[in-house]
Amino acid sequence: MQIRISIVRDLSSVTLSSDGPLRLSWQGGEHRCDGQHLVLSWKTPGRVTYRVCVEAYGNPALPEGFEPVTAGTRLGDLDMRETWLCRTYGTEAEAREARQRLLEQEIHAYVRRHLESSGTIEVAPGNQRPFEVPGPLRITPAAGVVTFHEIPYGAGFHWERREDEVYGGLFDVYADDRALLVVNETDLEHYLMVVNSSEMHPDAPLEVLKAQTVAARSTVLATRGKHHFGEPFDLCNTDHCQVYRGLQQVRESSRQAVEETRGEVLIYENTVADARYAKTCGGVLEAKEFVWGGRPLPYLVAKPDTDGTPAFEPPLNTEERARAFIDAHPEAFCNLKPNEIPYIGDPLYRWEIRYSSRELREIIRQKTGRDPGDLEAIVPLKRGASGRLYLLEVRGTAQTLRLFTELEIRRVLSPSHLPSSLFYVEREGEEWVFRGAGWGHGVGMCQVGMVKMAQKGYDYRAILAHYYPGTEVRRVSG
Ligand SMILES: [Zn+2]
Ligand SMILES: [Zn+2]
Fold first, then answer.
1. Which listed ligand is nearest to 237 at the C-alpha?
2. Which of 105, 205, 253, 351 has the fewest Cβ atoms within 10 Å of its own Cβ atom?
3. Hey, CA dihedral for 297, 157, 281, 256, is it positive or negative?
4. Domain map (residue ranges) of the chain
5. Whole-angstrom Cα distance, residue 241 to residue 232?
6. Given this model, what pLDDT does residue 245 score?
7. What was the pLDDT predicted at 275?
8. How far is the CA of 142 from the centre of ligand 2 (A)?
9. Around ion ligand 1, which residues have CB less than 5 A away?
10. 312 vs 291, 300, 380, 432, 434, CA distance in Å?
11. What are 244-258's pLDDT values in tens digits?
C-alpha cells in the first residue's frame, strides 16, 4: 500500500540532492536532472480554500453554511469513515475567525486547507539555467534516496531545529498559496520503519518498537483522508500526525519491528482503531473526547497506567482530586527513577514551572494577541476524566480570556508549550507556579510507560491491550 506524507511545508525554497539522476515531470513536460543538486522555489501561488470542520456527532445545530461531508476511507469490510460538518471560506483569516467563534462555544473545530490547484515552481538544477514549471512537479529518483537540506522541524516547540533529511520513494512538489509543499509517496511498511525510528529511540526494546509500529499502522489507516482532508497527502510529518523524519536514524531494530508485525493493526468492532499515543501520561491516560471532542471511543479511555492496584482511579476531574493526584507521585509504568532508562532522560512524570506575573502576562499577550492586564487569577473551569484541563480562564485587570482545548491551554501558558494540561496553578508572592504531570495529551499509549512494560516482560500484544482496551490485533495488509 502506498501512502503520501507532506515532508516540507511553509518554505519558499528547498534544496535537495541525490546520488543518482532524477527524472522531473509535470503536466506537458519532463526533464532529466543529472546534477547532484536541485533548488526548487515557490514562484506563483496556487489556489487554496479553507474549510472549518467539526465532527457531526454531538454537534447537530451549527451556524448556517455548514454542510455534511464524508471523511476517511474504507478498507475491505473495515469502515473508518466519519461524517463531518464543514463550511468553506475564501481566506485563512476568515476560517480561523470562524473556528475561534466555535471554540468560544466549546465546540472542537478544525481548519482544513484544501489545495484546489498548484501554482508554478522554479526549478534550478545544479549549474544549469533555472526554468519555471506548473505544479505539481513529480521527482522520481532513478535509484536510491533523496536528501532534503536544512529542513526545519518542531516549529513552536522547544526542540525546534534544522536538519538534513533523507527519504526514499518519489516526490510531488506543489506551490500552495504561500509556499512550497513537498509530498513523499512511499510504501506503508517503509514509512512505518521511519516513523518508529523517529518516534522511539532505536535502543528501545523490540516489543516496544513492535507495539509502536502496530499503533502507527493503525493510526495511518484510521486517519487517512481525515487529518488532511482536502490536501494532496494522507499525513504530515510532525506530531500532528506522526513524526516522520527520514531514513537517517533507521536501524536494524526498526526494520525488524516492521517485519515482525507486517500488516498488523488494531481492530475495534468493524474499524481500524485510531491508536493515539503520547510521550508520558503522568500516571493516568485521558479519554479522547476531552482532548479532541467528537464521539467517545471505548478503547481511548481514562485509566491508570499501572498493572498494580492504583492509588487513584479516574475521574480526577475535580480540583481536589487532580491536585491530590499530581502531588502524590503514585506508582505507574511511566513513574521512572531519575535516569532509570538513560535514553529517556527526564520523562516529565512530574514537573514544575514558575513565571513572574509580568513574564506570564507577556507570554499570554504574545500568544493570543490580547493583553489580559495585571494577572488576578488563573481559574481552572473544566477537567477531563484524567484531570487534564480543557477549559481555563485567565482573569486580568484589563480582560478575561477563556482558553478552550488542552492544546490551546498548553500553547498560551508557555513560550513554547506546557508539557501537559494536567496541572494546578498557585500564586506564590510575585510568581505563578504550575505543578503538573506528564508530557503530551495523554490519550492512548504512553511511550515511556510502554518501555517499562517491556522491561517487565510484557510483549507487544499485552502492551497494546493495556493501552487500547477492547481492541484486537489483526493482519489486514502487507
Ligand atoms: Zn498532520
Ligand atoms: Zn504513563
1. 1
2. 105
3. positive
4. 2-45+118-264, 47-117, 278-442
5. 15
6. 86
7. 97
8. 45
9. 227, 236, 240-241
10. 21, 18, 20, 27, 21
11. 988 888 889 999 999
